[in-house]
Amino acid sequence: MSPAPPLLPEQDRVLLHRLRNRKREPSPAAEPRLTTGQLIADKVAAAMGSWPFIIIQTSVLVVWMMMNVTAFVRHWDPYPFILLNLALSFQAAYAAPFIMMSQNRQAAIDRADARHDYDVNVRAELEIKLLHEKVDQLRELERSRLIEIIERLEARLS
Q1: Nearest to 99 by CA among 40, 59, 53
Q2: What does the domain layout of the chain look like in residue ranges?
Q3: How far is it, in rounded angstroms, from Cα 8 to Cα 17?
Q4: Which of 127, 114, 111 is nearest to 7 (CA)?
């Protein structure tokens, strides 16, 4: 009986060997040391993307408008609320970069995780392919042994 051919093509064997031997690079998410800017960006994004912030801001805006529309207090910002618009524009102008920094850092973490997931999937695919090849070889070996046994039995019967 001839020796079995390699189960995987050379390129797949090299890739599988590389994936098996590669240690997992630490994810940026596991990085305990964040810069001050990253911490601030994460805290600002977390605060501004929360329901308490939305509720508090909405309440402040409603109170501001009511106080400036009713005659109970002096109108420091009469309708059309130019000072309020300026304050909200200022808030948006400063909040946007913080939120973008936080999102960029999260996107980098997601990319690293996706790269790792892809490598795991490729490795699993190659391992499954290898197992299929081994099962096919075993089946072929068993089939050839059965044929051999049948031929011996036929020889005995003749």
Answers
A1: 40
A2: 34-157
A3: 11
A4: 127
84-96 tens-digit pLDDT: 999 999 999 999 9
38 alpha carbon, distance to own chain's centre: 19
> In whole angstroms, how far apart are CA 60 and each of 37, 54, 81, 89, 94?
28, 10, 13, 15, 19
pLDDT tens per residue across span 105-141:
999 999 999 998 998 898 888 889 889 989 999 999 9
CA distance 84 to 58: 12
How far does CA 62 lie from the centroid of its chain? Answer: 39
The amino acid sitting at 37 is: G
